[in-house]
Structures are given as C-alpha cells and as structure tokens.
Design a protein that fits this description.
The protein is 25% helix and 28% strand. By secondary structure, the protein is an alpha+beta fold. It has a five-stranded antiparallel sheet with strand order 1-2-3-5-4. It starts with 14 loop residues before the first strand and ends with a strand.
Length: 166
C-alpha cells in the first residue's frame, strides 16, 4: 500500500444562511433579528451595527418599492467579508440618489454605500439580488492592551553575580 500525500490545508470556513420573508412592513424587523442571531452564532459581533443598518435598508427597499409577496435574505461569511443579499422578483434597480436636504426619503442606498466596502445589483432569472459587503476586521499585529515593560540590560560579573546596569 502506498502512502497518500498530505491533504491541502482547508480553506477558511464559509458560513451561510438563507431565509424567505413575507413582503410586509414587519420583515425588516424579522430580518434584523435573523442577522443578529447569525452574527452572534458566528462570533462576528463587531460587524453587527453596520450589518443591521444595511439589512434594514435593503429589506425595507424591497418591501416598499417592489410590492413583492416574498423576499429572500441571504448571509454569506468567509475569511474576507460578510455579504448580505436581498432578493426580490422585481427587475427595478435601486438608485443611489445625490444628497439633498429637500428629500424626505431616498437615502437608503446612500447609507448602504457609506457603510459597506462594496454593493451592487445582480440580475436573476426571476428578479434581482441587491447585495452589500462588510469587510471582516483583521486581527491586530500587536496587542494594544498589554503594557510595555522595558528592562535594562544586566551586567554579569566574572564571579557569576548579576547586577543591573545603570
């Protein structure tokens, strides 16, 4: 019997969730609760504030502007980013409006753009998917909470005794 080569290292874990929601005004709240639960389970709570804002805006847009009976919410987490997607059966594309003091609404996609590293619209066979990505923070190279202790070099006498250098 011949030995098998060592397996390649596994890719970083990819996690995902998918949920259908009704096209109702209660769906943004339900979507936020689902996202909050998933992020806590995946131990990426540092993304929660931005993820909840983005989820709320995307789901609200789908409910208010499309009239769809159902909306799909997807979450995809890998080593690089969290992707939030909202799918509906409308082909109407969301528009990033210029800032204006006279608008009473229309700031949802601007909020999504400002709080994500990327966002976009992907045409689907029966509608579209509007998505946004949040970058996962990279671990700090040096600990910030640990105090720095500076030691003075010690001098060793020929006799083996050690005394601190002045």
């Amino acid at each position: 019997m011949t030995a098998l080569p060592a397996p390649e290292p596994l890719a970083p874990a990819v996690r995902g969730r998918w949920r259908l929601l009704p096209g109702s005004l209660a769906s943004p709240r339900t979507a936020r609760a689902l996202v909050s639960t998933a992020l806590a389970r995946w131990e990426v709570g540092d993304l929660e504030a931005a993820a909840l804002l983005i989820t709320s805006e995307l789901v609200t847009n789908a409910v208010v502007h499309t009239g769809c009976r159902t909306i799909g919410l997807s979450l995809h987490l890998d080593h690089r980013a969290l992707r939030i997607g909202v799918r509906d059966s409308s082909w109407a594309v969301p528009v990033l409006l210029p800032p204006s003091d006279s608008l009473t609404g229309g700031r949802g996609i601007a909020l999504v753009a400002a709080n994500s590293i990327a966002w976009g619209v992907q045409p689907m066979p029966f509608g579209k998917l509007v998505w946004a990505e949040l970058a996962r923070p990279t671990p700090s190279q040096t600990p910030t909470a640990s105090p720095v202790i500076r030691l003075r070099p010690a001098l060793v006498k020929p006799s083996g005794q050690i005394r601190a250098a002045s």
